[in-house]
Design a protein that fits this description.
With about 575 residues, this protein is mainly α. Among the domains are: about 110 residues, no CATH class; about 90 residues, no CATH class. Helix content is about 65%, strand content about 5%. α9 packs across α15 and α13 crosses α14. It is globular. The two termini are about 40 Å apart.
Length: about 575
Amino acid sequence: MSQAKSINYYKELIDLKDVEGIEAQFQRLLDVSIESIQDLENWIEDEKNLRFEIEEALTGHLVDFYRNTEDPHIKSTYLQDQQVIQPLLMTYEAKLNDKCCESPYFNELDENRYGLMKRFRESKVKLFRKENIPLLVKEQELCTKYSEIMGGLTVEWDGEEKPFPFIESQLDNLDRNVREKAYHLIRAAYRQIKPDTDALMDELVQLRHQIAINAGFENYRDYMFVAKNREYSIEDCYDFHENVEKHIIPAWNRLAEVFKSKLGVETYLPWDNTAKLLKNPPYAETSELLDGVAEMLGKTDPYFSDRLQYMREHGLLDLGDRKGKSPGGFCVPLPVSGDTFVFANFSPSFFSLIALIHEMGHAVNGYLQASEQGPIEEFQWRAEIAELYSHGMELLLLDKFNLFYPEEEEFKSAQREELRRAFTMLFGPLSGDLFQHWMYTNPQHTAKERDEKFYEISKRYGLSPVDTTGFEEVIGMSWIGTLHFIQYPFYDIEYSMSMLGALQLLENYQKNSQQAVEFYKKGASADYSQSIAAIYKETGVDFDFSESTVKRMGEFLEKVIQDINS
């Protein structure tokens, strides 16, 4: 897909290079006299509009950089945002939060409309320390460095230089020798960048620990629970880790025996633990991927496919792989335009098909939310909610994979792989969450200890059925490929929590497909100032990760896979 010019997908209503002008606008907000509850509500609205203008420009510059990490002008703009604009925003955000919270009318704000915002602002006031601003800027610089390292990573394949996502896609190859070759090349590439990424992670851990200490916390883990305004406790997370290990991993081990049988192998090796029962990639060109996903979406609900078509026509998608493009994939809202942009670095593979469906779940959520409630504000955005609609979209489209895999056995294999992915989303992000709990409560750990802990946790969870003998070192360093650990700390367990909700959505869909889709749309357009539990309820599911629910959903998932096999 050709790279669209920035003007086609975001609005720059504010010049981020005009630092004095931005400061003047913030200062005007600080100088406003608030003499009534109505004045305060008007002030909050004016502040929101200014933030949205800045946010859209910042997001556009970030996407530009991820699309081309090697362009010096784009990089310069992005770094100026991180080094100049972000510190400015942090400074004025703190002052604006103080002004709002200290207003005599703050406690008179309607709790239903402003309650979440009030709690969010109060936690921001609690966490803010001026001395943390340069540390937060440095943190972003290190994240940018990681994007550059990964964006420039290429691997030689059959004498030809290939982008890293192409090599990763070969892990899905039906030929076991090809998968093994890809696995070793990926690990060799990780080994090549390991010194730089180790140094980067070491610095990030110390930086984040100091941010937490400055804010009065014992460690960064505890700091992040307050920063994220989580509606559950640290102990709840540990219980969830335990429940999944107790009830999901045994089922995962049983299913591994099914996959081993279908593969015809006696030993399940690391390169067998991928989507490798599908004979061919589901598409050759990005246009085929988009056409097929549009049809899948349309058969589920016309509005879903309408949004994809709109995004195609307005340059709001960049999916293909190329050198210099950052790894990963994401969907970001553009609050002024009312649009969403989907970025990905895809090579033809089953994973890229699922990833696009996943990101379209985010996009549909964004468009429904914007049309009903307006753009999602920072305090309303919670990953536990956002990921419900991305995982949910994957499962709502489960019965339509025959559009890419028309042969009956291939169709069943694709469904099995998606449901296998549901299993991995229950324990994979959760094990990553446990890894981060350890990292940030043991901030003096060495790089060697970090690798050893990552291997240990991986073996307890996803690699439980895999023979890892001789691969301990390469598995231990494979955290390098998970950008969440670098760029989005403690954004992991939300995937696992939301997957429990998505499985309930699938359960409802199997009983009454039309009703389940309507619930999906209702929840995706709900008032996001409500609690997570209330929004899940509007979607027809429960926000519940207790032992009984984990066990029940694990049994349901296992049954659905067995039904496909029968």
